[in-house]
Amino acid sequence: MNGSPREAGQGVRLLAWNILHGGGTRRTPGIVLSILEHQPDVIVLSEFRMMMGGQMAGVLADHGWKHRHATPLEDGRNGMVILSRVPLEPGPCPLPEHRRGLCAELEGGLIVTAVHIPDARAGDHHAVGRKAASWAGLLEHAGCRREEKHVIIGDFNTGRHRLDEAESTFTATALLGRLATMGYVDAYRAAEPSGRAWSWQSHAGRRFRLDHAFVSGGLAGCVGRVEYSHRERRERLSDHAALIVELDFERKNEGNRG
Fold first, then answer.
1. Each residue of 227-255: b (16+ CB within 10 Å) or e?
2. What is the pLDDT of residue 123?
């Protein structure tokens, strides 16, 4: 799909990106320019902050992303935002920590759930419990919407052992698998069944795929291009790659013919 597919009613392009501590004064112009170059229909930003976030959202609104749903923003604390070219209706927060989750229904019926699951290392019982609570909220939310056109996208801070990381350090992998039992499909795996990708690299050079998009079963046949854009990370705009997911509703219709 070239450009925005929404005008023909054929699909949607989503961009999800953890912009690292709100972007900051030095990185924000580059972040905005990068988003403009990708031309998504829907933007999901993690670690969105009040200080630079208002300026960022204002510039993006001037370029067509006029519809916004954000978590409650407190000065100096990370939050999230969904920006859309088409009208959206805010839904219930999917996570117990309201700064880490958003839900909105777009005009046309697509439900976008944006998440930033907290990180937790094995052995840190408090952090693991906090992460488990976030997953419990998300799984309940996902279960209620599994029959709808639903995308869950963002920074999950986990993945599959020895597939989304070289070793077995992730926590909450079993909870990640619960999404599959509900019929949700990993968009990247749908597009690249044998692919290996990563979205974040540690200071020691270890690579992890932390950022994901899961689509409900009814959208599985609509998954088109899925890309992790590392240019932004190489340019030090963030420590995360930007995740771009295209859903082409015509693909599903073609698959249902004949």
1. bbbeebbeeebbbbbbbbbbbbbebbeee
2. 83
Helix (H, G, I), strand (E, B), or coil: what is residue 18? strand
Amino acid at 232: E
Assigned domain for 2 exists:
no
User: Would residue 50 count as lying in a domain?
Assistant: yes
- Which backbone phi and psi does 136 adopt, to 5 degrees? -60, -45
Q: Is residue 235 part of a domain?
A: yes
Q: Which domain holds residue 121?
A: 10-256
- pLDDT category at 5 given cuts 50, 70, 90 is very low
Residue whose token pair is 């597919």: 5
Handedness of CA 180, 40, 22, 79 (dihedral sign): negative
Q: What does the pLDDT look like over 218-251, one tens digit per residue?
A: 999 999 999 999 999 999 999 999 999 999 988 7
Tell me phi and psi for residue 114, to 5 degrees.
-105, 130
Domain of 121: which CATH number? 3.60.10.10
Region 190-205: mean pLDDT is 94
Backbone angles phi, psi at 228, to 5 degrees: -105, 110
pLDDT reported for residue 258:
42
Query: Any alpha helices (H) in the chain, and if so which ranges?
Result: 24-38, 50-62, 125-144, 173-181, 187-191, 231-234, 249-256
Q: Evaluate if pTM is beyond 0.90.
A: yes
Rg (CA), the chain: 17
